[in-house]
């Protein structure tokens, strides 16, 4: 309900206004003041949407009151009512952006018309304000989504120069909620009030935002509640238990430490995802990271780094690097008696899991059998032998893949994507993979369904679309970034590809 403040030193006049508001069914909370001084004090205590004030009053007159009020509340609707009808009054009222003025004695129809217009203005302004707030909320959610997906904050500030990014400083904690089904995505879309009530209760009504990251993950970003502190891990346990009890879903939650600044948001999300790698080995654990001395030890961190390098070597098919890193980790623990057996089994089971990710011909059951062996062996030499056996199979598969035409095509495609700004051609690409141009051309079309030149053009157009949509880069700069030295030629090719010029495409994307 909107509020109206009626100001007049005559109570009878105020009663007339009250009567007319009731007569014409204006639903308003009515406050009264007998003079300008009293009125201003009332507005400072509790702002109103409408100020309806007489002009001639003791202490502070209506014009002085309106001047002070307008300085403090820019959006308030101001209506004067007075027995004076002269040009100087009208001129002054207009400078104060008065919405109207009514002559005394007040005519009911004139009053009704004026108030109807004022109420329409208020509703319109409130609707526009709500739209602005919704739009701002959407942009902020989008920025958080892109931050979590590793978009640098400087790029985002360049894309949204009108937005104050200080709101990012409010976030101090993060909880990643992960499900192996798309359950969380549907839960978020349905705006399930019970789910949000669970979070509020578990975190003692702490303020938070929810980011729907992908069909299997949502991120809870918290603003620390310093007046009512709570333990985030305990809160995560309550959330997990309620989800399990209510929906029959075993979600896992990963809880962050305190974040000091917005730059840490993306880094923290990566850490939370990293903690969840351990869940393969702990089927009955739902809150991460697990409280164990190993998670903070120097040795554990060194091994995590080695595992990352091994995973990278596997992804890149670098068999030489792979053998070196495996040899290094085996040498580190061979004949070492002061390492906990549980950790050793855990570490080498992790290695086997990485190996099996590169062997799609093996089922999950096969992997589980090997891991069961790791946990059943009594001697490290048996663990080492099993690991080397699987390693030989992996290396053989990687070598065969390297020598296959399909692998060569993937190398060419990756080279094109990573070197799009260069002068790419069939002869140069064939030389890179030690094939004749004719053979590469035939194999490329056979594998991808398109010729190399068409593929290069498609990659360049995709990159152009991305840069036009997500950056303020000039069209002539984009042309050079994607490998076209001639701007006019790039514009013509882009228009042929999408039916509009690059500039028009950018305008369409930003509407």
Describe this structure in words.
- Helices cover 59% and strands 11% of the residues.
- The protein is α/β, with parallel strands linked by helices and 511 residues long.
- The strands form two sheets. A five-stranded parallel beta sheet has the order 2-1-3-4-5. Strands 7-8-6-9-10 form a five-stranded mixed beta sheet, sandwiched between helices.
- Helix 8 (193-202) runs antiparallel to helix 9 (232-247), helix 11 packs parallel to helix 13 and helix 13 (341-357) runs parallel beside helix 15.
- The protein is elongated.
- The two termini are 34 Å apart.
Identify the overall geometry.
elongated
| Structure class | alpha/beta
For the termini, the CA-CA separation is 34 Å
Biggest sheet features: 5 strands, parallel
Q: What fraction, in percent, of the residue positions are helical?
A: 55-70%
Q: Whole-number radius of gyration?
A: 34 Å
Mean pLDDT: 83
Strand content: 5-15%
The neighbouring-strand order within the major sheet is 2-1-3-4-5
Q: Give me the count of strands.
A: 10
Count of alpha and pi helical runs? 22
List segments where confidence is low: pLDDT < 50 over at least 5 consecutive residues.
none
Domain HTH araC/xylS-type: 410-508
Domain Response regulatory: 3-119
Protein name: Response regulator
Keywords: DNA-binding, Phosphoprotein, Transcription, Transcription regulation
